[in-house]
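Fold it.
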Amino acid sequence: MTGKAAPAPAGLTDGILPFTVEALDLRGRVVVLGPALDAMLKRHAYPEPVSRLLAEAVALTVMLGSSLKFEGRFILQTQSDGPVRMLVVDFQTPDRVRACARLDETALAAAIEAGRVAPVELLGNGHLAMTVDQGDDRNRYQGVVVLDGESLEAAAHRYFAQSEQIPTVVRLAVAEVVEAGGASWRAGGLMAQFLPASGERARLADLPGGDVPEGAETAEFDEDDAWVEARSLVATIADHELVDPALPPERLLYRLFHERGVRVFPAEPVVERCRCSHDHVEGLLRSFTPEDRADMTVDGEIVVTCEFCNLSYHFDPADFG
């Protein structure tokens, strides 16, 4: 989304609002990101189109990661051939998020000059991986979908159809909020999932196979009326409704589902916080050989900068013996 939004009143600024619509067998979450997102993006001083794309990725990751019911991490990562080579967003339950982007500076400058700054143009072709890390020695779960000139919203829909097989609709939006002190970033999103007691009602259409002959007939079936209604209602959401600071998420949910009855749960906060530390980086450096540390030494010191929070740690090589 482009444009500016009005200043934010008191209310939910960084958090998740879970909700359910029992009459439609619908469960979902609304994400609202303000100061935490703004601090994250301004710390890196990315070009505006990159900040906008990363903000979408952060909103999507927070929405998905905050649904985990155990201590762990949800990691979204793209790898592609576009000017934005990589996006990484790391959500650690219950509320911590960090993010960064890796750029092809030359390609990005050319894209900006040519006006090719839509998210799909910045991403290009590649893949999107979503990883659930349960910690300890438990196995990781990862779903991977192809990025082929599509938005993060579309990639998320493909992920749920392909990996989770849950009828899901996702909406994302990003804008800048104009305040007396300047502009600040804001992002919002909504995810709704159809979870009826009968698995047959939640049946999804089969994804087309790569070896299906052209023109071949595929099995068709009627989608459940409740899911069709829910998806149609979510489709009425305008971008500005997800990022307007004057529109609380409770009011948006009431507009969408009041005829069916919507129930909201206590909001869950989200904070922008990196997991790096001086001790952690020092331990990492000690795992290298003296020769490797010598190669890292510049002007008598070793400087390590965290890609996520952009904080630099300084070390004296002599401290490593």
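Residues 1-10 have pLDDT under 50 and may be disordered.
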